Amino acid sequence: MNYETIAVSKEGMVGVITLNRPQAMNALSTTMVTELISALSGFEIDDGVRCLVIAGSERAFSAGADIKEMAEMTAVQMAMTGHFFPLWDKVGKYPKPIVGALSGFVLGGGLELAMSLDVLVASETTQFGQPEIDIGVIPGGGGTQRLTRAVGKYKAMEMVLTGKRIGAEEAKYLGLVSRVVPKEAYLDEAMKVAKEIASKSPVATRLAKMAVNKAFEMGLRDGIDFERELFYLLFASEDAKEGMKAFMEKRQADFKGK
Q: What is the C-alpha to C-alpha distance for residues 4 and 31, in angstroms, rounded to an integer?
């Protein structure tokens, strides 16, 4: 498809979605949200894609929601359309692993989108923030919930109540991102991580992602029981048999996703 606000490509078993509204620092508009959902849906049913990368530009992953567009919406319109919420729902429940390639501004809805992903690689220039308080609202795409789980109550409270930004190294220290690299290497590093994930069993990576996500929704005992069910289930997969056989034969496993 021809997209207006994103670019879509494939590199081996990795699907790449690049936010592409440079004039607006990749602000999330209704069009961009619609196109992101479309691209994600396409990669979801593509068996040749085992992992995704979502990136922005060196200047901005996304500076947040398109305020000019959002300012015209009424409360009823917001509730009836869901605004950006279908995107959060799509990404939050996405079965394939997604790596975020972050640089520059990752603010507001941009940070909420990033926090919905699975592994975050950040440029050393990245700035993170939830500045919604500065325009008289609060995060609405899961920001208060995911940020608190990532960095703890008190840092999240400070960021949400003041709109204060943090840099990449502090974000890494707090556990908000997986790794920080020089700005010229962030996209290559994200692709490297995605290709490594894509080389594993797609059955196992899906269930592993599901199990880790459940850790934020269940108590420990229920979470362990859920993990154990998935562990047993994987023994019925051809990938598990191939992985163990390859290990014993000292060769690279050839996973088929079955």
A: 8
